[in-house]
Write a structure and sequence with these properties.
Blueprint: H1 2-33, H2 35-64, H3 71-90, H4 94-125, H5 130-148, H6 150-180
Helix pairs in contact: 1-2, 1-6, 2-3, 2-4, 4-5
Length: about 200
C-alpha cells in the first residue's frame, strides 16, 4: 500500500513539474513573441491582484476585529486596494501600467538611497565601501531613468518576466528529467513498527 502511494506521488510530482515547466516556457516565449498583448495582460493581472488582495484584507480585518486593536488599519488597506483595483479596471491599462512603472522606479531609488547610506556607514567603520556606493548610485540612476522613460521601463519589466519564465520552465523540466532518472524502490525501510 505504501509502495503504491509513493509510486503515485512520484509520478504526480514528475508530471506536475513537466506541466508547470511547459506552461512557464510557453508564457516566456509568448511574452517575447507578443509583447503588446503581454503588457496588456500584465495590466489586467495588476488590477485583479489589487481587487482580490483588497477583498481578502477586508474579510480578514472584519474577522480580526474582536481580537486585534488596530484591525481597522488592515480594513483601510483593503479598501484602498479594492479602490485601486476598480480604478485600474476602469482606466485599463493606463493606471496599472503607470503603477508598475512608478513602483519599479521607487524601488530602484529607495534601494539605491539605502545602499548609498550603507556605503557611508561601511566607510565610517573602515570596511570596503566602494562597490556598495557604486551599486547604490546605479540604482538611483535606474530609478530616475524609469520615471522619465516609462516605455523602456515596461520593456525591461516584460523582458525580465519573460526571462524568469523561460529559466523557471527549463529548471522545472530539468527537475522532471532528473526525477525520471531516479528508480523507485519499494519502501521496505519504512515499515510499521513491530507489534509486541
Amino acid at each position: 500500500m505504501q509502495s503504491e502511494l509513493g509510486h503515485q506521488m512520484y509520478h504526480r510530482t514528475r508530471w506536475s513539474l513537466v506541466l508547470r515547466g511547459l506552461i512557464w516556457l510557453a508564457l516566456g516565449i509568448l511574452i517575447f513573441v507578443r509583447p503588446l498583448e503581454s503588457v496588456a495582460a500584465l495590466a489586467l493581472v495588476i488590477a485583479i491582484w489589487a481587487l482580490v488582495s483588497g477583498i481578502s484584507q477586508i474579510v480578514q480585518a472584519v474577522e480580526m476585529r474582536a481580537a486585534v486593536v488596530h484591525w481597522w488599519l488592515l480594513l483601510v488597506s483593503g479598501i484602498i486596494s479594492v479602490a485601486f483595483g476598480i480604478a485600474a479596471l476602469r482606466f485599463y491599462p493606463a493606471l496599472s501600467l503607470a503603477f508598475a512603472v512608478i513602483w519599479t522606479a521607487y524601488w530602484f531609488v529607495l534601494t539605491g538611497v539605502i545602499s548609498i547610506s550603507m556605503s557611508l556607514q561601511e566607510r565610517r567603520i573602515g570596511i570596503p565601501w566602494g562597490w556598495t556606493a557604486f551599486f547604490g548610485v546605479v540604482a538611483v540612476l535606474a530609478g530616475l531613468y524609469a520615471f522619465f522613460f516609462p516605455p523602456a521601463t515596461l520593456a525591461v519589466i516584460m523582458g525580465l518576466l519573460a526571462g524568469l519564465a523561460i529559466v523557471g520552465g527549463c529548471a522545472q523540466l530539468l527537475g522532471a528529467y532528473a526525477l525520471g532518472r531516479i528508480r523507485i524502490e519499494p519502501l521496505a525501510a519504512v515499515q510499521a513498527p513491530a507489534q509486541r
